Amino acid sequence: MIPIVRADGAAEWELLASLRRRSGEVDRKVTAAVTEIIDAVRERGDDAVREYTVKFDGRCPETFEVNRDEINDALTLAEPEFVNAMLSAMENIAAFHNRQKQQSFIDTQENGVIMGQRVRGLSRVGLYVPGGTAAYPSSVLMNCIPARIAGVGEIVMVTPPQKDGTANPDILAAAAVAGVDRVFLMGGAQAVAALAYGTDSVPRVDKIVGPGNIYVATAKRLLYGTVDIDMIAGPSEILIAADDTANPVYLAADMMSQAEHDVLASSVLLTTSERVAEETAAELERQVERLSRAGIIRKSLADYGMIIVCRCEAEMIALANELAPEHMEIMTANPLEYIGKIDNVGSLFLGQHSPEPLGDYFAGPNHVLPTSGTARFFSPLGVDSFLKRSSFLYYTREALAEAQVPIVRLADREGLTAHANSIKVRFPDVW
Amino acid sequence: MIPIVRADGAAEWELLASLRRRSGEVDRKVTAAVTEIIDAVRERGDDAVREYTVKFDGRCPETFEVNRDEINDALTLAEPEFVNAMLSAMENIAAFHNRQKQQSFIDTQENGVIMGQRVRGLSRVGLYVPGGTAAYPSSVLMNCIPARIAGVGEIVMVTPPQKDGTANPDILAAAAVAGVDRVFLMGGAQAVAALAYGTDSVPRVDKIVGPGNIYVATAKRLLYGTVDIDMIAGPSEILIAADDTANPVYLAADMMSQAEHDVLASSVLLTTSERVAEETAAELERQVERLSRAGIIRKSLADYGMIIVCRCEAEMIALANELAPEHMEIMTANPLEYIGKIDNVGSLFLGQHSPEPLGDYFAGPNHVLPTSGTARFFSPLGVDSFLKRSSFLYYTREALAEAQVPIVRLADREGLTAHANSIKVRFPDVW
């Protein structure tokens, strides 16, 4: 099911290259279709959304917005155990994200100068929640909680209607728990465009977050700049580094927890132990039988999974930093040391008892993470993602007088005489 | 030269709409040309860069990289007054940006749980510096200083060769002051592609920052995701709010300091004073005569300038927040109050003695700011722009045992049995 290779051959580099390719290319047909949808929604608003909803979702709700009572009812009617699990998770997620909040600052000088940076939440954020089997309550929590902590004024959710024309009740219950302000039953590129431009029903937002299919992702990419977006998420990934202290039962289980997402998902094990490599491969075969998504898992592991036997820890670390994985588990004798050694990673799971689903659902750090090697430069979703900064500056006449010479000199050097002039007119005796 | 209109007519809304349109549409021809350049550089590296350099810049330097001695010489040979002005500016810029630095954090719990967020600088950043009259030393400082403070490992500059095949000496001097590590003589989309993919000469970077023409901007947009980018900068803007305490001489000078950048630049004055409106219009006519870029200024003010007479302060504030200007000056009796009133702005300049060029060159806050209304959701360039975050998580067996029930419940609810399995295999006695 999964290939085992030795590091420093060619196989692991081919794998890295193939992982990069998964998310890459923009599909011209999809781009053309999405461009048409975006233009229609910009020009005709709700009417266009209604037409596309009928076309893609079969029928369109009479009103797009879900009634507040319906949202509250979804929470009341949900299984208490499910609600309690969400509440426990929310507590942890909020505790972690509270630590991320940046403060405004101000600096003052004796000559009266005041300057600083104001930090505040975005006014309104749109959250896309996919329909069908990809409608995940945990995703609602992970997107809304940092937005709330950032002080976002209003969170607006869009989600496609189910076949019967109603909203998924688990998603509504999660929306109620996470404090979503308004919910609209629409999906696809048309919902993204409605959020970006605003329609009679849907208010215009400042940023759109949340996962979606290729149409949703393409709409976000095309509307970037008209509105801010979170990131273009590629297929999910896990990389595990293990030495001979690792338990192959855990390794196999954790690899498959990633592989079940998608046939494009990637699960890669790096290990310094030949024995661990072989036993993990055997464990994969053993455990996959009892999992509901065995078909997806088998294909994902065959296409994008690999066990790579490394000669030393340093080789595992170098490969990890090259791959820049979304999730990485460390199952070695010294897991905490890796915090400083893995430079390119979305989220690190350290030790035998920190499986990736712990982070997906419960522990606190965000599960919206950079994929496809972009952890080299992108960061997990967080409170920062929902803040905007602006600077302010107040100079006194005395302070500007002191600063005038270098400013005029630099402006003149750049050939910008009107820049220099704005200083000079304030000190006509000098210039 | 500049229209004067009354607020709450239609004219100011038409202006806002026309400002939005300036930056907007993607040019298909440019996109096609840039796509070809990007593909060529990805496939053929330096050879392709060399061909495009000859084609667009007339000739190609024998080696792309500028010798370290040449960079140091540029600083030694530069006018001492110019160098000193840069050094004073750098001190202020560094002091302000030092306040922005985020720290890593760690949280610990009694049950042994450790989690946190590691924050660190990007490994390598590319800075694009345009050639010709848009080669601004101040831009080198504003881009490099926050990168240095963020802890970026290496800063690589690209800039097109001058007609004689050498680098602009002012830019080299600024690079030496700001601590640029390597400089390459190449420009346009080919230089951006070289930074994004790496070539034999140019190392691959994690993020590309800096201004550029439509080809550079399009290349950055197309390569976003392969590499991070700063923002897609539109034409520059200033908005001024003034009451009858404002000095029309200063107002006119400050409006023109923005207008001289570009015929697409926008300078708009909001004022509650009819007299200030008229006197400022007269001052514009008077002062423009003595400025070297009078032609650009006249066209910019005629096309994208406006004086809008407002009925009250609240109207000025509402218009400002709608416009979300890159720069805003406040020339009223109570300028500091505006810090909390202007929600959508890149940088605020408060009072009579804080003209915008003070911020462009000297005071400390960054001059790379969101344009075209994107201050609604984008922020000034800053230390954050050069940081990446990642989270880490370490659970003990005891802690995971306590958390297992809600995790399994949520995973089951989402139909992800392999996620649940990764918890269950760790507690076979329970499940």
TrEMBL record, chains A, B:
EC number(s) stated in the UniProt entry for this protein: 1.1.1.23
Annotated Pfam families: Histidinol_dh
Record-listed Zn(2+) binding positions: 258, 261, 360, 419
The keyword Transmembrane helix is annotated on this UniProt entry: no
Cofactor binding annotation: Binds 1 zinc ion per subunit.
Keywords of this entry: Amino-acid biosynthesis, Histidine biosynthesis, Metal-binding, NAD, Oxidoreductase, Zinc
GO molecular function terms noted in the UniProt entry: histidinol dehydrogenase activity; NAD binding; zinc ion binding
NCBIfam families: hisD
Family recorded in the similarity comment: Belongs to the histidinol dehydrogenase family.
Name of protein: Histidinol dehydrogenase
